[in-house]
Specification:
There is one protein chain. By secondary structure, the chain is an alpha+beta fold. The chain folds into 2 domains: about 60 residues, SH3 type barrels (Roll), CATH 2.30.30.30; about 70 residues, no CATH class. It has 4 helices and 5 strands; from the N terminus they run βββββαααα. It has a 5-stranded antiparallel β-sheet with strand order 4-3-2-1-5, with no helix packed on it. Strand 2 and strand 3 form a beta hairpin. The protein is elongated, with a radius of gyration of 23 Å. The N and C termini lie far apart (about 60 Å).
């Protein structure tokens, strides 16, 4: 299988959010697609969310597909280098790498989260520090507002960084 489809080799070749299909036989794949939710290189497995549930799969049985069309995709240029290919690259250049639409969406979501949510969190922490509240009091006050939006780690690390930077 990996020899026929160079996009199915190891768990490290997948990223969280990749769309995949499972191989049933040499040329037959599942009609539905799944999304990679976790990569476990230590046990050589990939967790995939299928329509019927999440299952731990062997990466050699999976093939990357385009998220919208469901057709196989290859991330690397696996063609043989040749004189014609060299001439083509010389005159026309290499094919530019395109950012996938869902990667753009992920960047936009992360930017919105960082600018709006984290910005409000930092403002509230600074306001608590100006009122001379301790770190624990600040955590208790901020946790009620941001617990459903941010992880506990983000809240704690933000408080620690702000209090340390102001004290120095």
């Amino acid at each position: 299988m990996p020899a026929l489809y160079p996009m199915t080799v190891a768990p490290e070749d997948f990223k969280v959010g990749d769309t995949v299909r499972k191989s049933i036989s040499d040329r037959c794949f599942t009609p539905y697609v799944g999304v990679v939710t976790n990569i476990l290189p230590s046990i050589y497995k990939v967790d995939v969310q299928w329509p019927r549930g999440s299952i731990r799969e062997d990466p050699e049985e999976l093939i990357l597909v385009h998220p919208i069309f469901g057709l196989p995709t290859v991330r690397t240029d696996s063609g043989y280098s040749s004189y014609d290919k060299g001439i083509s690259e010389k005159f026309y250049g290499k094919i530019p790498k395109q950012v996938r639409p869902y990667e753009r969406m992920a960047i936009r979501v992360a930017h919105n989260f960082a600018s709006k949510t984290i910005g409000k969190l930092v403002d509230d922490i600074v306001e608590c520090h100006q009122k001379k509240l301790s770190e624990v009091q600040t955590y208790n006050r901020v946790y009620g507002k941001f617990a459903s939006i941010c992880s506990d780690y983000i809240i704690r690390s933000s408080i620690e960084r702000i209090y340390k930077s102001v004290e120095e």
